UniProtKB/TrEMBL annotation:
This is DUF4083 domain-containing protein. Keywords: Membrane, Transmembrane, Transmembrane helix. The chain crosses the membrane at residues 17-38.
Length: 67
């Protein structure tokens, strides 16, 4: 599309295309990494709360048995 808009007078440099695609993939990778870190942070917090609740329940059951 760019070649047609430029009228074909400018050269089509394969190096520029490779660079643009590389930068695009770097940008996408950064966005995915940020999203993954945020998601894992919230997921880990929920997981830890669940473990804490189970541990509290076990401790309560142990105290009831010892009483």
């Amino acid at each position: 599309m760019f070649i047609l808009a430029a009228g074909g007078t400018h050269g089509f440099n394969l190096g520029d295309v490779f660079f643009q695609l590389s930068m695009f993939f770097v940008l996408i990778t950064i966005v995915i990494v940020i999203f993954s870190v945020i998601k894992s942070h919230f997921t880990q917090g929920k997981h830890l709360k669940g473990i804490e609740e189970k541990l509290d329940k076990l401790l309560e059951e142990k105290e009831k048995r010892n009483s």
